[in-house]
Amino acid sequence: MRITQSGTYRTIMNEMDRLTQGLNTLQVQAATGKKVTTASDDPTAVQPMLFTRSQMTETDQYISNVTDGLDRMDVMDGYLDTTQNYLTRVKEIGIAGANATLNKTDRLSYADELSQIRGAITDQLNAQFNGRHLFSGYKEGTAPVGTTEGASVDSPNGTAVAGMTTYAVSGEISQDEIKLQTGPGQTIQVNLNVEELIKTQVPVRDADGTIQTDADGDPIMEEVNLLDTLASMEAALRANEPEGVSAMLDDLEVGAEQVRLKRSSMGNSANRLETALNSLEQSKLDLKETLSGYEDADLVETLAKMTQQESALQAALTVTGRVSKLSILDYI
Amino acid sequence: MALNSALQSGKTSLLSSQTAIEVTGTNISNVNTTGYSRQTAEFSDYPALLKDGFFVGQGVNVGSISREHDAFLETQLGDKSIELGYREAKSNPLSAMEQAVSISDSSLSSKIDAFFASWQSLAGNPGGSVEREGVLQTGTQVADAFHSAAQELESIATSTEQQLEAGMQGLNDKLTQLADLNVSIAKARGSDYSPNADLDKRDMLIRDLGQSLGARPVQGENGMVDLMLPPLPPELGGTTLVSGDMAAELSLDLENVPGSVLVTFDGIETTPDFDSWDGELKGSLEIRDEDIPKALAKLNTLAQTFADEVNAVHKAGKDLDGLDGKDFFVLPTGDGGNAANIHVSGDVGTRQVAAGTSAGVGDNTNAQDLAALGKKSIDDPDGLGGSTFVGYYGSLASSVGTASSRNDLALTGAEDSMVQLENMRDAKVGVSLEEEMINLMQFQKGFEASARFISTVDEMMDTILGMKR
User: Are residues A215 and A272 in the same domain?
Assistant: First the structure.
């Protein structure tokens, strides 16, 4: 076959184009660190890449939600802790006030302290987090506990004490469970309602302590409302009725126990959130690695390929120089 | 007078060598001319005359200047350039389409992800105005991403069409040129003059038109070449583009899209089948009439389903004022389909975002339902066929990517074949400098020898004339 000059140059040009094109692709890969920037780079990787990115976006959002949820629980826990401390103090006041040796003035000053504690406990229950009431269920805009001033409260002995402040759950508060999504199909409740905090169902007992039952043999339950218990205790102190104060101590214990119970159940939820957060962080790392496997260039491999391509190009260039050196014109 | 005739014979040899050197010179000058076919001076000796009982030759002349030609390679080149043209025409538009349905971090699929993430964020704080605003903003971004993808696809179709339209004039010129060359080649045949340059030009034009239109040459009468669209032979109903000295006129039929190209030949207008075209024209038509509409249809389906699904969940919820949720997205019917028109409803402000299913500010149930849509497989067979939104977009992007990478692979293959075939053509009919240089030496020696012959005869004549002194 005759080999013509233009044929030789055409082949070299074609080869050189190929080589520089390949080199350019590798350089872009090395510079960007990505081997897939357009769908044609690896059409089969497109779906898994997009899917993994979706999951990463989602996981990021879950993480941010769970972090928010944990913050919220931390704050709630703080308020409940304070509430518990107040209740401990109330118990001390109750025990002291029930002491028959105390005089009326002492009881009044205890009553004043209790009045302030009652206000403070209400403040805890009406606490807000980022402008949202924590214990209101879905009705975040509404304070869960309302205040009535100048009311008359009956002491356990039936004495009406005027000029007291009363606190009650406002009527519109719902008992919704606010749930946060912590993963696909996983939700964790992140709120407590004021109702479940301050109201407890206890069986009604006879004087000798046996539980009363109805016709079906089921225990008869009555509701103990912590806010009412505190109000009654204050009324008993103001009415100077130590036996009335003493009568409220059981209900106070029931109320305090309920707060403790709810606080610890919330602690469990917080633990679950922590666990969820850890597993989310882990799956985020996993997803990153998966995505990287699809779209990131292996730098070592890319650089090795680049060196390879560069030597091929060098060889092609050397050959080109040789071609023009050899000419029949130099020999005739 | 025998010496006189020897002088005459020497002259023919001198002239022939000179002609051969001139032909070699022409070959050398055209060493880099595309499509040039090597020419050769064909020597033939003059018939010998009977002289004194002997047949003595009368010298040499250049009978013709022939042109190397290889019909097989020319056909092969024609076929390959059709493939090359088709692949080349699709290469850039397909790359552009890949950009339109990109897989980058800022693509439509990422916007959809962000949209559902913003609902998840709203679920964390259903009453928050920042979160509510976020939902509206990411919704607008999804709509914008739909618009820009649709617009980019549309604009690729438009520029492909403009390119086609702009190319029509050039194609018509080439068809006319081919007919003109036919005429001059036929004339030259009659006059015994060798139309080598015209033949080269015509071969190039035929290859060119094959690359542009997929047209194939058919040997006509009188050395003319006709140009036809398949099916060939013409009896099977192919369309004539050039016949002898007559050329057809092509025009783009913009009224009938997806349509084709009108061919007016001898006053009769025909519309060849879409499939009879090939080369660049078919590539461009395919982009405009098949590839882009297909991608747009998928994008529109995605926009429609996306809006419908989001609206259905949003309407099931209650807004901040406890009112029923409204349509979140609206799809006004208009030019350009759903993807170009989808937008967040003007009736939905931050208060109208339906995060819950009850009147409570803190109710996040509907926001969670909406966020869950992002992972939902939409089973509707007319819609996404069991894919998620992002999955469906992924299949669109991957199908465009596959088309593009397959086309690039075929393009590289076609380019390689072209290089190989052109090298083979060069080997057969191209100019080799080495060969020409050796020819040059050969003819120069011939020239020198002829000159020596003449001077020898001259000396002989002197000798004879010197006898009588």
Answer: yes
Is the interface score ipTM higher than 0.90? no
Q: Which residue numbers in chain B have pLDDT < 50?
A: 1
Beta bridge partners of B64: B42
Q: What predicted TM-score, i.e. pTM, was given to this entire model?
A: 0.84
Phi, psi at residue B70, to the nearest 5°?
-135, 105
- Note whether A148 and A174 are same-domain residues: yes
Residue A43 lies in a domain: no
Q: Return the residue of A nearest to B412 by Cα.
A: A18
Decide if A175 touches B, using CB distance below 8 A. no
B292 Cβ contact list (under 8 Å, min separation 6) = B93, B97, B153, B154, B156, B157, B160
Give, for B58, the enclosing helix (H) or strand (E).
none
Q: Is residue A328 part of a domain?
A: no
pLDDT at A122 over 90: yes
Co-location of A242 and A204 in the same domain: yes
Residue B397 in contact with partner chain A when CB distance is under 8 A: yes
Residue A296 has a pLDDT of: 93
* Cβ within 8 Å, pair A5-B31: yes
Rounded Cα gap, residues A181 and A61, in angstroms:
10
Residue whose tokens read 């050395």: B223
A270 lies in the same domain as A133: yes
| Amino acid code (one letter) for B357 | T
The whole-number pLDDT of residue B122 equals 93
Contacts of B400 in chain A (CB under 8 A): 39-40
Tell me whether residue A279 is in a domain. Answer: yes
Q: Do residues A239 and A136 share a domain? A: yes
From the CA of A257, how many Å to the nearest CA of chain B?
Answer: 28
Q: What DSSP state is assigned to residue B342?
A: -
Q: Residue B54 in 3-state DSSP?
A: strand
The reply to whether A47 falls in a domain is: no
Residue B95 and residue B89: Cα distance in Å, rounded?
11
Residue with tokens 């030789």: A8
Whether A71 and A26 share a structural domain: no
Same domain, A107 and A197: yes
Q: Which two tokens stand for residue B427?
A: 């080997």
pLDDT in tens, A30-88: 999 999 988 999 999 999 999 999 999 999 999 999 998 999 999 999 999 999 999 99
What is the domain count for chain A?
A: 2
CA gap A125, A303 in Å, rounded: 64
Tell me which residue range forms the domain holding A303: 8-35+297-321
The H or E element that residue A223 is part of is strand A221-225
Given a cut of 80, is residue A170 above it in pLDDT? yes
